[in-house]
Each structure stands twice: as structure tokens, then as C-alpha cells.
User: What shape does this take?
Amino acid sequence: MTETIQGVSEWNALGDADLDQLAVSLRSIFDRFPISQTPNESQTEDDLIWPILEALGWSESLRQQNLSPRGREDVPDGLLFDSAETKANPNTGTAPIFRSKRDADLTTVIYGNAVPLVDRSNCTEVKAWPVKYATMFHMTNDSGLFRTRKELEEQESAYPLGGNTFGSASGNWLPLYVGRMVHQFDHRAASVEVNEANLHNAALSGAVSEEQKADPDFVPTPQYRVPESEVDLPSGIEWTIAFRDIARATDARTMIAAVIPKAGVGNTAPLILWNDEDQRADHKALLLGNLGAISLDYVTRQKAQSTHLNWYIVEQLPVILPDKFESVRFGAKSAAEVVRQAVVARQSG
DNA sequence: GTGGGCACAGCTCGGTATGG
DNA sequence: CCATACCGAGCTGTGCCCAC
Assistant: This one.
């Protein structure tokens, strides 16, 4: 090891003065450390290990985030990165393309105050929130299941049941949501209108008027409906979080997520499902608030290189841990209460 | 070792809508 | 008329897996 170190150019570039300064710095850290008081692991990390790593020049690091009182034994106490760029894309380790150094600095600062939604940087999967990614219907592969209203009425003898649902002898039919039908906190953002004359891109967004928005019974019209029996959601789930897969860094918002009702959903609106028994609606509201945050959207823009918000991008986005929502307070209210109220007000508006 | 199948990231393309 | 914003499908290269 000594031989290898002595062969490294960075080592040879170090002058005696630099080494002396480092030695003084390290000795000072050791001298301050209270060995006689049998410090615990946490204190040893805080007062000895991390200061030494900093003195050695490791400026880019991530400390373990305590997700539960039991602590985490499956991940290391911390991660060291060779550059801010590597730290800014913690899972893939690829360098985001920043337009300016300020963008890189801001992104790094944001990651200093948040954690990736799903952290795979240590080859194990550590989820800040108990989420999983799902797409329901593929717009090409599953198109055999889709029916337009005309096809439903003519081929299935279907009849409207209200709320965008149709009934038929073969069972009920639910609307097929696509990305354009939702916007931030809005599951009624647009209908899908079809221009048959346009052979290339026939589906267009149909504007929803203020009057329609004011009607609580209004639902946007989808292009297709799908058999209810094919709608694969965990039992008991009547709504879930969806986001737009098609998104560009130049759009007004790149991350657009909303609660949508139980329905068919196309692959351009991927779902974020909860993967455990704890289906707390208040937690889902907090994550939705997180996905709507300007800071998260800003980071999304740094990472979105194409027109698809693939899961590998979304899972690296910076989110606030559930515990932090509870511990940070604004006057009498916790951050969780403030965000929850805002999210519910906007989504139901 | 090779070739087919497949998934996916990255990119281009063609279209509509809006505003200066 | 032009620039910009918005929208989603399709193409291509790459890498992995697996059967032969």
C-alpha cells in the first residue's frame, strides 16, 4: 500500500509543508477527542472519523440518513464521492449536464438537505418513502383492450354509469388516463380530443373551462376506456399518485404529479404506489407536496436529458424524509400539517 | 463464441397552440 | 411570420440475457 501511494502523482506533488500542516491538523482532531470518556459510535463518527476525512480532502460525502429508530445496518455510515457531480447523481454516478456552475452548486446544496427518493448508490436499495414504480397499460402493446366511446356503444352495447364509467354485459369500463389529462394537483386538467384527419398525431388536449372545473361532478373525457377487470391496483386502493412521463426541461414544470382516481392509466402516466401495508393517505399527501416543490422541479430539469421522465431519474430526485416533515415546525404547526393542508386544498380545488 | 430477443436511454420528428 | 411552449410517437445504439 505504501509503495502504491508513493507512486501516485498527487502524493509526489505534496510538499513537506503540506504534510506537516496535515499532521498538525490530524493531531489536533485526535487531541480533541475524549478517549477517556468511552465515546459511542455516533460521537466517534461526528468528532473523529468525519473530521479526519474532511482533513484528508473528502469534501463530497453523504452521511447515513436514519430512517427508523432501529437504525440501519444494511448500509454504510457514509459515502464518499470523488466529485460534486458524482454526488449530484448518486444512483447512476453519471454527471448531469449543468448549464452553469451555479446550477451545479445549487443542486449539490439541495442534495445536502434532502435524500434521493430511492438511494441505490450502495448497491442496496434504500427508500426514503416506501414507494414502488408501476405502469399499468402500455399504449401500444395493450391497445387491443382499448375502446372508444363509439366502439363501446356499438360493439359492447355499453351504457354510461356516470363518472366516466360505462357498463356492459362483459363488465364495467373505466377511463384510460394519459399524461396530458393531469397537471400539478389536478386530475381534471384536460380531456383528450381526436382529430381523425390528423394521421400522425390525432390526439389533442381539450381545454377544461372554469365552469367545468367549478362542477365537482365534471370528469375529463378520455380517448379510450378499458375493462375494469384489467385495472391492476392493490385491493382497496381507490386513488394513487401519477406523474407525467413525457416532460422536457423547457416545460413550465418538468415534474408534474397529481392524485388520480382508480382508473386505467397509460404508460405516459406512471404510478407511484406504496409497497407496504402502511397506506397512510397523509404520507402520500406529503410526498405529493414534495413532488410539487420548486426545488425538486429545478433538480429534475438538471437531469432530464430527453423527453421521458424515466424512473431512474425520478428515484434520484431529492425528497424530504417523513420524520423531518414532523420535526420541522412553523409556529404551532409542523411542516407536515402545513404541506398536507396545502396539498389537499389544491388537489381538491 | 454467436446471434436473436429484449429493455432502455437518448434523441429526432411532426404536430398544435399562443403571443409578440 | 416567427419564436416559443407544449405534446407524444418512433427510431437507433447499447448492453444484457439466454439458447444454441
In short: DSSP finds 13 helices and 19 strands in chain A. Confidence is low (pLDDT under 50) at residues 64-77, 197-201 of chain A. The longest strand of chain A covers residues 173-177. Chain A has two domains: 16-57, 132-347.
